[in-house]
Amino acid sequence: MKVATGAAGRSRIHLTYYGLAAADEQTARLYTHFRVVMAGSSLAINRIKKELLELQKSTDNADNPIEIYAEADNIMKLRGVIVGPPDTPYAGAKFMLEIIIPETYPFLPPKVKFLTKIWHPNISSATGVICLDILKDQWAAAMSLRTMLLSIQALLASPEPDDPQDAVVAKQFKSNRNAFNITAKHWASIYANGPSRQPDCEAKVEKLMQMGFSESDSRAALSSKDWDIPMAAEFLIK
Q1: Where are the coiled-coil regions (predicted)?
Q2: 201 included as an active-site residue
Q3: How far apart are CA 98 and CA 123, in angstroms?
């Protein structure tokens, strides 16, 4: 850092970061922020590399496979894959998640959402956004991507309908558990290659499609209306 005196006797700060010169305090602050961000990115990258290596070496992953890989060689943009837990409507289905690593990782949590559509009270059926405390204020730097995905997998087995991300799904979960189980199995089969096909659901979707509605709209309406065709059709017409 060099300090020079200007015409009015005021000092001017000259800083050089990464080969760039700053001629005033505001620019200097911007460069300082840039350097901090770069340092944070380096820490995040090293941490992610270590976690991915440990995941590859893990021997306790065989019975409960969890996959994490980079998207297009960008280690800050990852994809995760989890398998639906046994004894749930999601059993045997594979769900893909988007994992965006912040530059301040592991001190702040990743941004995570489902890319595979899923019917669950704590996951948006439209956007895949997840309501889970460790993805917010309960995150700790000691946590890892693996423990995070295991927590999301556990959420599939233990929904929290009183703290929902999707109010429609939560309402069905609490008021008509049978309809919820049927819907969750159907979505897992259609979107996540789950083993539990629901032929009756598929037939009802087809019937609404014959009435001129799209497949996705028909499935969403029937799912939210407990698979009642007249109610779903009325909802779509409105």
Answers
A1: none
A2: no
A3: 13
Tokens 């305090």 belong to which residue?
A: 25
- Residue 47 has what DSSP assignment? H
Phi, psi of 162 (to 5 degrees): -85, -5
Catalytic residue (choose from 131, 148, 155, 222): 131
Q: pLDDT tens digit string along 67-110?
A: 999 987 889 999 999 999 999 999 999 999 999 999 999 999 99
Task: Give yes or no on whether 58-157 and 198-238 have one common fold.
Answer: no
Q: How far apart are CA 125 and CA 143, in angstroms?
A: 27
Right CATH number for 198-238 from 3.40.50, 1.10.8, 3.90.226, 3.30.70? 1.10.8
- Cα separation, 142 vs 83, whole angstroms: 24
Nearest of 102, 101, 82 to residue 92 by alpha carbon:
82
Tokens for 91? 């059993």
Superfamily of chain region 58-157:
Ubiquitin Conjugating Enzyme (3.10.110.10)
